[in-house]
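Worked example 2:
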Amino acid sequence: MARTTVSLRDDLQVALDEKDSPETADFSESERLILQNVLKLSKVSIDDVMVERSDIQAVQADINLGALIARFRQVGHSRLPVYESGLDDIKGFIHIKDALSKITEPVTDPEKEVPVKLLSTALRQKIGKLGITRPAMFVPTFMPAADLLQSMRASRTHMAIVVDEYGGTDGLVTIEDLLEAVVGEIEDEHDETEAALIRKVGEDTYVANARAELEDVQALIGPDFDPGELAADVETIGGLVFDLAGHVPKRGERVSGLDGFEFEVLAADSRRIKRLRIHRKRAITHVEPLAITDQRPEAERAAAE
C-alpha cells in the first residue's frame, strides 16, 4: 500500500485552519495569525508589499547637506534614495545618521557642557562629495518576499529598489515592509493616522488610499458624494471603484459611473487597487446670450432707418 507523504508545512497549515485542533490549542489568535502569515510568505511577491513608484520619497545627488536634512525632517524617514537624472537612475541611499555625522563632531574638552559641536559650514556641501551615499540593492518585482527578507538580513541592508524588466524603478521595499507581511501593520510615532487615508489636494480633487472607508470619504468630500445602492456590498473606496470598473483597473486608468465624480487609479497591482485620485466634475452652466439693444437716441435711429 502506497504511503502518502505529507510535509510538516501541510500538517501545520491543516492544524491552524482547524481552530479546535488540539495541536494548536495553546496558540493565541495573534500567534496563529503570525504562523499563518509565515506559511504564506513564500507566495508573497515583492510587488505585493513594495512602496509604489509614485510614493517614493527621494533626493537628487546634487543637493547640499542642508537641503538633505530639511528633506529628512519633511518626510520623517530614516533613509532616502539618491538619484541623478531621475528615479530610473538611483545611485544609492543615505541614512540620516550618516548625514548628521557630517554636521557634528565630538567635543574633546571634558569641561564643556555640550558633548558635540555643530559644523554649520558642512551644510553647504554637496552630498555627492561627502561619501555618505550607500550602495542600493536592486531586485525584480517577481522575487518572493521571503527570499528578499533573507537576502536583506544576510547583507544587513534595510532598503531595496524594485526594478522592472527594462531596469526602470517600479517601487521600493524596506525590511519593515517585509516584516509587516508577517506580523501585520507596524506603526511608529511618525506614521500618519487613519484620518489621512484621504486628503484634499485641490478645489475639486482628492487623493485616497483604497482602504479609506466610504463614510470617511463622504464626510470629507460632502453629501454630493453619494454611492447610494453601490455601497450596499462594499465598505471602501477601492471596493467601490472596483465594482464600477468591473475589473481591477490599471495604474492611470480612469473610472466613471458615479454621478458627479471620476476616479483615476494612481497605484494598483494585478489583484487590487492601492491608491486613487477623486475628481469632482462641475456641471457646465448654460449662459444665455445677451440681447444687444440699440442705445442711440430715437431720432437718430429713425433717421438711420
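The longest helix spans residues 29-40. Residues 1-5 have pLDDT under 50 and may be disordered.
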